Amino acid sequence: MRRETFSQISNLKISNLFFLLAINMNIKDINFKGKKALVRVDFNVPLDADFNITDDTRIQAALPTLRHILDNGGSAIVMSHLGRPQKKLNEDGSINTRKFTLRHVAGYLPNVLNCIVKFADDAIGEETEKYVAELKPGEVLLLENTRFYKGEKKGNSEFAKQLAKFGDIYINDAFGTAHRAHASTTTVANYFAPENRAFGLLMENEIKNATYALNSEERPITAITGGAKVSDKLLLLESLLDRVDNLIIGGGMAYTFAKAQGGSIGNSLCEEDKLDLALNLLKTAKEKNVNIYLPTDNKIADGFSNDANNQFASTSNIPDGWMGLDIGPESIDTFREVLLNSKTILWNGPMGVFEFENFASGTKAIANAVADATAKGAFSLVGGGDSVAAVKQMGLGDKVSFVSTGGGAMLEFLEGKELPGIAAIQGNVA
Ligand code: AMP
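Above: the input record for the complex with adenosine monophosphate. Below: its predicted structure, written as tokens.
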């Protein structure tokens, strides 16, 4: 078994990797002694009906940054969102503070951080200012859900300015929301001098690993894309064609490609308005010398359910009334061989409806192949889609090089977009 995060990779070519981070202040170079750090984290954790945290992965992911600040003599004013309170208002139009309060997390934090954690019912305002003023080194003040305030999602300057008042230093460690130009993730950075703002350790690690994967010179580079729709992954596919040697396309999106090439796909998922686009992508791939691998066989079902009747069929020959819900054994063998011969692997999206046990074999086999390729020395990054859930579900999280914590953010990063939360730390925001 081999697990390498970027920081452990020493012998791989990393020529143009550091440009992204070199121009920023590194959290390790900041002197936190006696300073108040305003830290944006992603504490958007799942809760059960009694508001107990059912999965603390996101909290655990933010701990190294918080610990670093506290251990170096600083205090932390912590901001996060939780859920979508503005979308799920009470019947009278008010915020459902009971459900979406970050108090649910405040009670949990001392267990994992081992320090005093205070909670501010209001993310801004005089009362909160007082709490901030009283905060001692080594202590944490968690602010109420930033999304209780309309200004948050609008990236409102006034709201950001009020938050900014609380910190001498701004740290953004919320990679999961780095693709949002919100007040606490983006606008707030404008109120800190370049030497007083930095990425947190989690964010830095995400950026380093994704940048490495995208700029790797360790070839062949193979990307695996899957999931439901071509339209969701269009920009990703286009961006990958400029970077990879092999592109494996599985999942529901593969059937649009199959139909575009003249196959009979029965009732499989298909975006009729994307057929030309699919053909164009295949043409571009040829021009760019990228090998495209589409499933040649499939596990098909006579309904969209785990218990539907199933059988195998070639991609070009799926009968009416049947739909492809997973890749078949022949495709698995082909994809596996490509992966085992790869030196860099990027994976986004499952090979089938892996939520149904009867149609999870393709995704499982690919997860195993990625893990085996990693054991052979490949660098593998899983991110930006349900493939992360699949890898974790199979307990293979520590058998691939890097598993991203940011779904949409990682997808946009791999698409080559500039993420507002990253740009803000770099000073690229107007
Ligand atoms: P994404 O979030 O883009 O990675 O898409 C993941 C979703 O795609 C999962 O919920 C899968 O069930 C779904 N999916 C994968 N393959 C298929 C398929 N052949 N037909 C329908 N849905 C699929």
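Notes for the reader.
The chain has 17 helices and 17 strands.
The chain has a mean pLDDT of 92.
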